[in-house]
Amino acid sequence: MTKPHYLLLPLFPEYAFGPEDIDGLVPACRVESWRHFIEAMQVPDHNKASGEFVYRGQRGFDWHLSSTLARLFDGGSVPGDKESKLLHEFRLAMRGRGLDISNLAEQEIWAFGQHNGLRTPLIDWTKSPHVALFFAFNEPDQEGKENASRAVFCLNMAAIRADDTLAEIIFEPTHHENARLVNQAGLFTVTPSGRDNLVTAILNELTDNGLIDPNNPNEVARFISKIHIPNEHRVECLNTLRKMNIHHANLFPDAGGASKYCNDWLSRLIEEERRDAAEAREIEEAADRALAEADPPLISGEAISAEAIANLLRNTLRNDSEYPPELLDGWASKIISLYERTAETDWPERAASELRLKLEFRKFLMSNSINRAVAETGARHLVDFFKANWRAANAT
After folding, report:
1. Are residues 182 and 221 in the same domain?
2. Same domain membership, residue 287 and residue 197
3. Strands, sheet with 186-190, edge to edge from the N-terminal-most edge strand
4. Exposure pattern of 154-187 as b/e (b: 16+ CB <10 Å)?
5. Using one digit for the tens of pLDDT, what is the confidence trace for 222-277?
6. Helix (H) or strand (E) holding 151
7. DSSP assignment of 304-327, as one string?
8. Which DSSP letter does residue 142 get?
């Protein structure tokens, strides 16, 4: 089996140039998980006011930085005449359709169109790496397509703006009809029309000004880079981001966002119920196996101790990974205390007292998330153990 591309890359913060069909001309690296990505974004370079980064999350590991308009043309460069004609047609088509865009600046119109489905020369970015992570993991993979990693692009906005020529590619709309952009801490880069796509425009300008050695990935990464994140634990990632208030309803403050938020809630609920049902079946099957097996032999009259109780529980539960020794040792001490509080002097001679003790043991085990059937077996074993000890102590 071929090793996934991202595993051939160095770990953040070191970079390398990958195959052009995957990473283009952008230096790339990897992190070991989405949690490590969040940790990586806490380093000083990504928290300097003087070197502000912006981010873009993408689902596909081999997707390039390309606007929806640039994707229509080979090489990613947008012919100027096509761009102008599209903008003109959109102005005409918007007449009488809500917002009056006739007096808006060209870039403001593009920004408005971008969030309403128009193909534009703009690429969305966010000032929040966590929002970028959401967009990287938001959608499930395309069916039948291998996708070992997801990606977040990083662009040093402050450094780009410091160059007079490149400053024009950064655009932050000011028109109020863009609530999504505000909630997403968003802004745009403008793909230059004509000769260059976005990445080559940036690299050519930086190289011409002597700011980078284009063959040194770590130098280029100070301005633009790509981080691969293993495509694992997607739902867990989105659940964590939801606790940070990063979800559809907040990022898309409109009816569409509300709908996606509710659809996502329903999908998660159904998946959780399926998972719980599967786990319940596994527990029931384990309980059935435990009941079918012969009871572990008890040492008649063995002294009451936390070690003896822990061994009994271990033989009953038969799951060292879920119930490690230190957990059972803690339970054992509590069970001994429970026995001393509950057991009457002559309890083995009285059926009602024995039943009450068994119910207390079962209640304790079930309160610690033991399945009812297994808890019943455990309670029976505990009663038998304490009864054997009582009889040994009271033998004449």
Report:
1. yes
2. no
3. 28-30, 224-230, 149-156, 53-58, 122-126, 186-190, 170-171
4. bbbbebbeebeebeebbbebeeebbebbebbbbb
5. 999 999 999 999 889 998 898 888 876 666 656 666 676 677 667 767 777 777 67
6. strand 149-156
7. P-HHHHHHHHHHHH--TTTS-HHH
8. P
**Quick one: tokens of 377?**
């077996």
Tell me the C-alpha distance between 329 and 339, whole Å. 16
Confidence of residue 375 (pLDDT cuts 50, 70, 90): confident
Q: How far is CA 64 from the centre of its chain?
A: 22
Render pLDDT for 183-227 as a digit per residue (tens, 0 to 9): 455 678 887 666 567 888 889 889 988 889 999 999 999 999 999
Q: Rounded CA gap, 71 and 65, in Å?
A: 10
CA neighbor of 304 nearest in space, from 173, 393, 202: 393
Range of the domain at 85: 5-248
Greater confidence, 209 or 79? 209
* CA–CA separation, 65 and 224 (whole Å): 11
Q: Rounded to two decimals, what is the model's pTM?
A: 0.63
How far apart are alpha carbons 335 and 309 in whole angstroms? 8
Q: Could you tell me if 288 and 364 lie in one domain?
A: no
Do 161 and 227 share a domain, yes or no?
Answer: yes
Amino acid at site 311: N
